[in-house]
Structure formats: C-alpha cells, structure tokens
Amino acid sequence: MPVTALVSAKSCGVTTTALALTLASRQLSLLAECDPAGGTIRAGLLQGEVGAGYGLYHLAAADRTGPEVLAQAFASHLWPLDPGGHRKLLPGLTDPAQAGALGRTWPALAEVLHVLAEDAGYDVVVDAGRLALEAGRPHPTLTPAALLHQADLVLLVVRGTEQSLALARHVIDPLRADLAEHERSPEALGLLLIEDGPYRAHQVADSLKTPVVAALPYDRSTAGYLAGGGRPVRGLGRSPLLRHARTATEQLRAAASRQQLQRHYPTRPAHAQLAGVLQRLNAKGGGHG
Length: 289
Prior knowledge:
α1 (14-24) packs across α9 (240-262) and α3 packs parallel to α10 (272-284). The protein is globular. 41% of the residues lie in helices and 17% in strands. The chain contains 10 helices and 10 strands. It has a single domain (3-278), classed as Rossmann fold. By secondary structure, the protein is an alpha/beta fold. The longest helix is centred in the last third of the chain and has 23 residues, at 240-262.
C-alpha cells in the first residue's frame, strides 16, 4: 500500500483532500496530520473530541527512546475516524511552536509510516501542509521534508484557478529539484487537482509541466463538513467528493506501485519490534474506539 504526501503552495484544501482520500479508501487507511503550522481536524471535523494529550507532538519524546517505543506511542496516539477503526488519524500539532521539537523525529516517523503501509497493509496519507521554502529549499522546520523524501508519491494540491496556478509555479520547480537531490524519480511528483475554476486537468498539467495524477470535484457541502464538522452530510459515502476520492485512491495506488518498482533507496533497516507493534493495529481495530 502507498504512502502519499500532500502539500500545497498555499491553503488549497490539503487537509480536506487528505480526509476524503482516507475516508474513501477501500483498504485500511491512516491520515497523518503533519502540517508544522498546526492541525485543524481536532477543532474541525472532530469538534474538540480529541484533547491535546493525543497526537503527533508526543512522538518526539518517544523517538528519543527507540523505535519500539516510538511504534508503541504511535499506535496509542491514533484516533478512529469510523466506528470500526478501519480509518485512523494521527492528530496534528495543537501549537505551531511545537514543530521545532519534531525536526529529528520526521525520519523515524517516515519509517513507521512505511512499515504501516508495507507490512500492515494501510493506505497512508500524509497532510504535510503548505510547502515553505527557504533559499529555494524546503524550510528545515516549517516543512516535514523527510516525509516528502520518503513518500511513494508527493502530490501538490492545486485548484484550476489562475491564482492557485500562479502560486504553484513558484514552488513546483524547487520541490522537484529537492526530490531529485534525494534520488527520487521525476514520476514521484504529481498534481492533485481540485476542480474549482476554469482550467481543466490537461491545462493545469501543461501550465505546471507536471502530470495530474488524480482530480476531485469541488463539492462544497461535503468539503465544508470535513473541514468544520457539525451535522454529517446525508449519504456522505455517496457524495461526489468521496465517490471520486474512492477512484482517486485506486489511481494513487497504481501510480505508487510504479514508483516502488523504480525506487533506488538503500534497503530500510528492518525493525521486527516496530513491525510487530504496527501489525497488531489490525487485530485491535486501532486507536481509541
């Protein structure tokens, strides 16, 4: 199963898109809310149900102890997004000031996410937030670069508007260059189009010289619910957004499979304890149900 990282040039619906893909997946799925600017799902979709005692920030201390402790902490900080616990959330930061503590944890978290995907069979979606650059490179604190470098796919979320494309043009080449420096093939980078605006997929791809790997409709009511919570949308699973997201997850899985065949990473070290802890998530249903 793939690890797919979503980023944007500016607020472009990354979190809502990540939620739609996670909820629509036909596989076990997990959304890791890793935006250094802070998570929004606690206060939005979950309406404050998850307190600050859970989530990403607490993994930094566990990482200093070792991979098994990190895996156990990771498993204990997941929150179910459905009654059966088949779709899970790693809640994000409650304060952007916490991002600095995670600098050394991103690579270890990337390893955990890949074990979850490859050994435990999860579709993993990483909400990496807005791509922040410094001197033409991902900012060391404001972008979780290690998660992008190790993802099977990195997708820049854009809308079909002139404003969105103009912003994306400033970040797509630095992002492409950074991935290349970390031995990623050009096909590891793609676009996910939110169909809001006059430009169609082929026009967006031509404008940014990058393929559109998947597209989702601009479904205002469903997106509003995923972003802000409140009264559930009637027939949520049949909504245009989630129906198309279901198709998109299959497209992403196929694209990621091609990437996995082309990857030239050194073999990641095997952590038997880490894999065992994460595989037990399947039996538990995971999280705090």
